[in-house]
Amino acid sequence: MSVLLEDNIIEWEAAMAVRSGNENHASTRKSALEAALQAEALRLRTRLQPVVEQHDLYLEDVDIKVAGSHRTVHVVVDLPEDASGSVGLDVISAISTDLSAAMDSDPEDDDRPYSLEISSPGVSRPLTEPRHWRRNVGRMVEVKPVSGDVVLGRLLDVTATGIRLIPQLPVKKGMKPKQGDPLALEFSKIRKGTVQVEFAHPEDEHHENSDGGDPGIPGAVHHA
Prior knowledge:
Blueprint: H1 2-54, E1 58-67, E2 70-78, H2 89-104, E3 114-119, H3 130-134, E4 140-145, E5 151-158, E6 162-169, E7 178-179, E8 183-186, E9 190-195, H4 202-210, E10 220-223
Parallel strand pairs: 2-3
Antiparallel strand pairs: 1-2, 3-10, 4-5, 4-9, 5-6, 6-7, 6-8
Helix pairs in contact: 1-2
C-alpha cells in the first residue's frame, strides 16, 4: 500500500511539473506576442500619424489584434483639443481611404491579411490625459479621486496640473439639482474620470448617433 501511494505521488508530481512547464511556456509565448503587437502598433502609429494630421485630426490610438494569420488594426482618431463637436462619419470615411493606402504601401508589411477599423473615441472613453479633459470642458463629468468620495460636476476649465469643476450636490429624488462652490482637483489626485451623458444635451446626441463614437462600433472598416 505504501509503495503504491509513493508511486502515485511521484506520478502526480511528474504530471504537475509537466503542466507547470507547459503553462510557463504558454505564458512566455503570450508575453512575447503582446510585446511584438505593441511594437508593431507603435511602428504603425508613426507611419499613420502624418496621414491623420493631414485631415486635421489627432491620432488617439492604434491597437492590433491577431486571430490566426489575420490582423485587425483599430485606429482611433479625434478632433484637436481646441475643437468642439465630434468626428463625423463623412470625415472617418474620407480618412479611411488614405489610411488604407498607407497600410497597403507599407514597405515593412509582411503581406498578412488585415482589417482596418477607424473610429472616434465617444463619450464613454475614460479621461486619462489632459487633452481628454480639455476636449470635454462644459460637460458633466464624474471624478473618482485617489481618496475620498466620487465627485459629479460641470467641468469648468483645465490647467497644466489639474481641473476645476462645479460640483453637483446630492438632493432628494424629484428636487432640482443644486451646485456647490467651484472645486479644483490635481491630476495626481484623480484615479478615474468619465463623461456623463446628458440626454437633453444636443452635443451628446451628436456623439451617440452621428460619429460612430462607441468604441465597440467602428466608424469604417477596410479589408486587405
